[in-house]
Amino acid sequence: MSAFTPDGPELIPAGTGPAVDAVLTLTGERTIPDLDIENYWFRRHEVVYERLAPRCVDRDVLEAGCGEGYGADLIAGVARRVVAVDYDESAVAHVRSRYPRVEVMHANLTELPLPDASVDVVVNFQVIEHLWDQGQFIRECARVLRPSGLLMVSTPNRITFSPGRDTPINPFHTRELNADELTELLLEGGFSDVSMSGLFHGPRLREMDARHGGSIIDAQIERAVTDAPWAPELIADVAAVRTADFELSGREIRNIDDSLDLIAIAVRR
Q1: How many whole angstroms separate alpha carbon 249 and alpha carbon 259?
Q2: What is the pLDDT of residue 148?
Q3: Which domain of life is it from (predicted)?
Q4: pLDDT one-digit tens code per residue, 6-19
Q5: Predicted TM-score (pTM) of this structure
Q6: Domain 36-199+248-268, CATH
Q7: How far apart are CA 103 and CA 121, in angstroms?
Q8: Do the strands 103-106 and 8-10 form a parallel or antiparallel pair, or are they unpaired?
Q9: Residue 71: which of 97, 99, 92 has the closest Cα?
Q10: Element (H, E) at 184
Q11: What phi and psi, each to the nearest 5 degrees, are found at residue 60?
């Protein structure tokens, strides 16, 4: 059985590997913690929360598209207040029961249920590529942010995630973006001072890439798409991935177009 998570395959091998016992069903629209077979994609998402959480210290934060809720809860450890919004009612119920320090609401992200100028930071990680009206969502973020508030967005880099394709490789994505397209979207939506970083494999993950035919990502996707058995070595490496195995670098250090994911921070005008 195979499907897709927000930014990679829903890696459930056929007849091999560790048992999957998810609190939320792996529908293909979110990643979740505590599953060895999903660990690469989860850590690739979690690292961005870890690196950007310091920007949320003592601030009122909205996570627009919270999914399972682990990221909103991580931010709640440093923020003054965290409000989380998601369109999936089952995810909202899950967050409400599992993460009591997060205030969670069910809503469409193009109509955020918050007053004007009511938060200091909006977080939107690995979500914008799922939205049909990305421009309206960005304008809504500008509306709910206080002057000079921050919008922090992460999304798979179209150039490396769906190379050479007119449509996204992930069937749950509506429109993927490159760095210039994401910057333009933010500037047109009411933001300025856009800083762009990229997420890359660090040394340990590059060693794993070499062990698995040049790409641990492709090795996982191949098995998810073909239902091929997982080699024990691949299962072990995927389960061993840590957030420290990823590197976050700005334009001045590395070519953003080569990144796995894009991370943008923009200031409300």
Answers
A1: 9
A2: 97
A3: Bacteria
A4: 343 333 332 333 33
A5: 0.89
A6: 3.40.50.150
A7: 15
A8: unpaired
A9: 99
A10: helix 179-188
A11: -85, 120
**Dist CA 239 CA 267 (whole Å):** 37
> Strands (DSSP E) along the chain, which ranges?
3-5, 8-10, 60-64, 81-86, 103-106, 119-125, 145-156, 191-201, 246-250, 261-268
What is the C-alpha separation between 115 and 117, in angstroms, rounded?
6
- Return the exposure string of 93-119: e unless at least 16 CB atoms fall within 10 Å of the residue's CB, then b: ebbbeebeebbbbeeebbebebeeeeb
Q: What is the pLDDT of residue 29?
A: 63
Contacts 24+ apart (CB under 8 A), 240-245: 240/39, 241/39, 241/40, 241/43, 241/44, 241/205, 241/208, 242/43, 242/204, 243/43, 243/46, 243/47, 243/50, 244/202, 244/204, 245/43, 245/201, 245/202, 245/204, 245/205
Low-confidence residues in the chain, pLDDT < 50? 1-22
Residues 43 and 246 sit within 8 Å (Cβ to Cβ) = yes
| Token output for 134 | 């990305």
Cα–Cα nearest to 212, from 198, 225, 202, 223: 223
- For residues 61 and 81, the answer to whether their CB atoms sit within 8 Å is yes
Q: How far apart are CA 163 and CA 157, in angstroms?
A: 9
> What is the residue whose two structure tokens read 């250090």?
253
Torsion of CA 162, 165, 169, 172, to 10 degrees: 110
- Dist CA 74 CA 102 (whole Å): 10
Retrieve residue 248's tokens.
């976050």
CB atoms within 10 A of CB 58: 9
Q: Which residues pair with 4 in a beta bridge?
A: 9
Closest C-alpha among 101, 28, 107, 109 to residue 69 = 101
∠ CA(158), CA(261), CA(33), 5° rounding? 120
User: 224 burial class (0-12, 13-18, 19+ CB within 10 angstroms)?
Assistant: buried
